[in-house]
């Protein structure tokens, strides 16, 4: 899609896994993984990231000696990175979570809070939004669970906390698909990607071409 100028790829570079291994079982619960194939894009780029000290130190050239070009482009002439992963046309970093909310996500405390909220207040509607008073209730709930709330993190995490509470309420009341929809709509990476639609023709425009 990218190389034929049919789509704008937005997000972060992929990991760079572009080879196929065939695994043969050996004795003592061990095995031998033998690289048997490699993936290439339509232009001939390797998807495999370089692995120094192996035959994949310069992916593509050892396994496909004819593929020794370092210059690649889309059908309309937009330059492409020579390989190692799929590099997006527009880089959009994912949300960065601090250690405190990462810990809260691991404990299941958002689900427990949402469950308690529903027991006290009844069913929430789809337009529910966590307000400042609810955040204070959440802070007290976290404290009762024995979790300290760092003030620096508390101030910067307000938006994310509101989203996580809303997601868990939707999960409990309307089902997981509803919660996933709320979480997706609240993802800044998704929001940024959605804002690119009006710019797609310009992004896909190659040198000297018009759309």
Q: Keywords, please?
A:
211 residues, alpha+beta, 6 strands, 11% strand
Structure explained in plain terms:
The protein is α+β, with helices and mostly antiparallel strands. The chain folds into 2 domains: 1-94, no CATH class; 99-186, no CATH class. Helices cover 37% and strands 11% of the residues. The protein contains 8 helices and 6 strands. The protein has helices at residues 99-107, 109-121, 132-144, 151-156, 158-174, 176-185, 188-194, 200-203; strands spanning 10-11, 19-25, 31-38, 72-73, 79-80, 90-91. β4 and β5 form a beta hairpin. The chain starts with 9 loop residues before the first strand and ends in an 8-residue tail after the last helix.
Task: Please report which band the strand proportion falls in: under 5%, 5-15%, 15-25%, 25-35%, 35-45% or over 45%.
Answer: 5-15%
Strand order of the largest sheet: 1-6
Radius of gyration (Å): 24 Å
Strand tally: 6
Write a compact overview of the structure shown:
The protein has 211 residues and is of the alpha+beta class. It is built from eight helices and six strands. It starts with 9 loop residues before the first strand and ends in an 8-residue tail after the last helix.
């Amino acid at each position: 899609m990218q190389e034929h100028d049919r789509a704008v790829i937005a997000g972060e570079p992929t990991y760079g896994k572009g080879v196929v291994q065939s695994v043969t079982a050996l004795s003592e619960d061990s095995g031998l993984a033998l690289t048997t194939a490699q993936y290439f894009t339509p232009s001939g780029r390797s998807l495999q990231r370089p692995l120094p000290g192996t035959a994949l130190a310069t992916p593509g050239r050892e396994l496909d000696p004819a593929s020794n070009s370092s210059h690649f482009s889309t059908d309309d002439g937009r330059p492409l990175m020579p390989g190692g992963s799929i590099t997006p046309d527009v880089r959009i970093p994912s949300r960065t979570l601090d250690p405190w909310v990462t810990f809260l996500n691991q404990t299941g405390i958002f689900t427990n809070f949402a469950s308690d909220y529903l027991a006290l207040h009844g069913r929430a509607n789809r337009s529910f939004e966590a307000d400042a008073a609810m955040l204070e209730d959440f802070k007290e709930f976290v404290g009762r669970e024995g979790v300290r709330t760092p003030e620096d993190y508390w101030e910067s995490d307000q938006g994310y906390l509101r989203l996580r509470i809303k997601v868990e309420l939707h999960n409990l009341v309307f089902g997981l698909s509803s919660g996933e929809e709320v979480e997706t709509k609240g993802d800044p990476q998704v929001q940024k990607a959605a804002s690119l639609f009006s710019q797609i023709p310009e992004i896909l425009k190659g040198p000297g071409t018009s759309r």
